[in-house]
Design a protein that fits this description.
This protein is an alpha/beta fold. Helix content is 39%, strand content 20%. The protein starts with a helix and ends in a 5-residue tail after the last helix.
Length: 454
């Protein structure tokens, strides 16, 4: 941990950013605050002033803090959506965005050098605070103010919606309550205490498999909608009024429709390769360009900035917005979704029908397959050599290897097979015009992975 912090301090000194200081934040995982304190001690030992969060803080609030404080970057101790036995070390650049490959490569080179020398500089936390090298800084007030500037919270507070919020034991605990707690709006929060084991879920990732409690609570309480944020609150998952999970592809398409049609805004849309083809229909309807990137917001954010994009999104449930931070924000995305419900007077399931009336029916599913590392090359070779003229009796019109192996069919259905870059998983994705076709495409993909495809 200290070696990683030393590598960041060296990077800040090498790039002339050290004098601007560094924000250090953390999530609710086991010992995250202790890791963050250790990072602050190293920053102080390197004459880099550290602004240390006094409590678990959402990643988007930390990203905004970088911009507000004009620091050289931020360290965030979080494993985001990963299982309980993980923790992680994130670095945000001076723009508040995820570090590019070029930046992380430089930091990794510093890590290798520091490991070789075995030397880190540090000052005990109490001494660093006394010398004003470390300062506690609560980033929540500035973040609340930013969201207040972006959306009319009073309208949501007085909407008479009944909303269940699931922060998944993570850093987003209490944020919706603080923002929306005064009014006739009724908010119920579950899983809202710190528990690093994340009981009742495989990991704090807001996907259907982990949201059974949220779904049951929505149905029991007859709530309008359920909102879930992941472990560091930069991703959003949504349960409709019937307790049914809404795919992230539909959520993103609805957020695009909200900004374009309801708010009357205009601008490009940035999507990752795993995001929905519904956006191309919105492109036609609203005359806005759609740009595509590999998976990862570190690719989305720079393109959003360069093109002044209205919105950017990825299949994992991360959505970023113009006028905010160049990063994902699950809390703001949830507020925008509530505003969409209020402005249209439609329930989540009705919104899906409304979306389909504009773009046609779309269905989606992702399957994660564990694999043995020894089998990676054989799996890769099988997929690489697969060049069918048709899949599920539909002609293949194009294929690419932008990020994994993607096949696009004549009816605009698509299938993607890619290795996760953060977990030992093979991810299979499919989107089509019926759920049955999605299932068939995924079965064919799984057969290919296992060497059974024809």
């Amino acid at each position: 941990m200290r070696v990683c912090a030393q590598a960041v301090a060296d990077y800040l000194k090498e790039t002339g950013l050290a004098q601007r200081g560094l924000i250090i934040g953390y999530d609710t995982r086991f010992a995250s605050e202790d890791f963050a304190a250790a990072a602050a001690e190293v920053a102080a030992g390197n004459a880099v002033k550290a602004y240390l969060c006094p409590k678990a803080t959402p990643t988007p609030a930390i990203s905004l803090g970088v911009i507000a404080q004009k620091t050289g970057g931020a360290i965030i101790i979080t494993a985001s959506h990963n299982p309980a036995n993980w923790n992680g070390f994130k670095y945000k650049t001076e723009s508040g965005s995820s570090a590019s490959s070029e930046v992380t490569t430089k930091i990794e080179e510093n890590i290798i050098r520091t490991l070789a020398t075995g030397k880190t500089k540090q000052i005990p936390l109490a001494q660093a605070i006394e010398q004003n090298r470390v300062k506690y800084l609560d980033l929540a007030p500035a973040y609340y103010q930013q969201l207040t500037n972006l959306i009319n919270l009073d309208e949501i507070r007085h909407s008479r919606l009944k909303v269940v919020v699931d922060p998944m034991y993570g850093a987003g605990i209490g944020y919706f309550q603080k923002l929306l707690g005064n009014g006739v709006f009724e908010l119920i929060e579950i899983n809202n205490e710190r528990n690093p084991l994340f009981p009742g879920m495989r990991q704090p990732e807001p996907i259907a498999a982990n949201l059974s409690k949220l779904s049951a609570t929505v149905k029991r309480e007859k709530a309008s909608v359920g909102l879930a944020t992941d472990g560091d609150a930069d991703r959003l998952g949504i349960i409709d009024e019937n307790g049914v999970y809404i795919s992230t592809l539909h959520v993103f398409a609805l957020l695009c429709l909200y900004l374009l049609e309801i708010r009357g805004e205009h601008g490009p849309i940035v999507k990752t390769i795993t995001m929905t083809s519904m956006l191309y229909r919105l492109e036609e309807l609203f005359n806005v360009p759609v740009y595509e990137t590999p998976v990862g917001f570190k690719y989305v954010a720079p393109l959003m900035t360069a093109e002044q994009a209205l919105i950017g999104g990825e299949e994992s449930g991360g959505y970023g917005f113009r006028g905010h931070i160049p990063e994902r924000d699950g809390i703001l995305a949830g507020l925008y979704f509530l505003d969409l419900m209020i402005k249209t007077g439609k329930s989540p399931s009705q919104l899906i029908n409304y979306l389909h009336s504009k773009v046609g029916p779309h269905y989606y599913k992702r399957v994660d397959v564990k694999f043995s590392e020894s089998a990676r090359q054989a799996i890769n070779n099988r997929i690489r050599d697969y060049s069918p003229e048709a899949i599920d009796s539909i002609r293949v019109v194009s294929s690419d290897t932008k990020d994994g192996f993607r096949f696009i069919l004549a009816d605009n259905s698509w299938l993607l097979i890619r290795f996760s870059k953060t977990e030992p998983l093979l991810r299979l994705y499919a989107e089509s015009n019926t759920q049955n076709r999605v299932e068939r495409l995924l079965e064919l993909a799984q057969g290919l992975v296992e060497g059974k495809a024809h």
